[in-house]
Amino acid sequence: MGDRAQEFPDNPERFNFFPCVLGTEGINSETSQWVVEVGKAKQWAIGAVRESIERKGYLNIRATEGFWVLQLMDGEYEVTTTPKTILPLWKTVRRILITLEFSLGKLSFYDVDSMEIIFTFNYPFSEKMFPFFLDLGQKKSIKN
User: Fold this and answer.
1) pLDDT band at 89 (very low <50, low <70, confident <90, very high)
2) Is 60 within a domain?
């Protein structure tokens, strides 16, 4: 990321407000795992999203909108349940294992260093899911 917004053509698959990234491979049947190193970042959101999520404008990052996400916001770990759930983690998490068990409808987050469970969403996923990454510490929106 540079000091100024970059110009990009408008693409229906591109997010245009927050700097979000989706994994390239969609998941719709098997179990899939990935590790995210958040390091010392102060604000982030990671997890999985359904293929049909809204990508234009301000994102309403909630499970009811297709975002099953663990995030660090204002020094608190929270998950995107409705209402949101604040997680009482007693230590800073640097690396997180995310496991999506599509057919079982489970998305779980683990602290890689201790392999302790952080949180599990239980939801009957009905469409292709994609790994989701968002650096909320960015000050700029994406310009189309």
Assistant:
1) confident
2) yes
CA distance 94 to 84: 22
Specify if 61 maps to a domain: yes
R_g (Cα) of the chain, nearest Å: 15
- What would the DSSP string read from start to end of 14-60? S-SSS-EEE-SS-BSSSEEEEEEE-TT-SSEEEEEEETT---SSS--
- Answer yes or no: is 4 within a domain: no
Which run of H or E residues covers position 85? strand 85-87
DSSP 123-135: ----S-EEEEEEE
Number of domains in the chain: 1
Q: How is residue 103 annotated by DSSP?
A: G
Amino acid identity of residue 106, one-letter, is K
Q: Tokens for 17, please give them.
A: 């407000």
Give the max Cα distance, the chain.
44
Segments forming the whole domain that contains residue 107: 24-135
Specify if 103 maps to a domain. Answer: yes
Residue 57 sits in a domain whose CATH number is 2.60.120.920
For residue range 27-41, list pLDDT tens digits in order.
Answer: 888 899 999 999 988
Whole-model pTM over 0.85: no
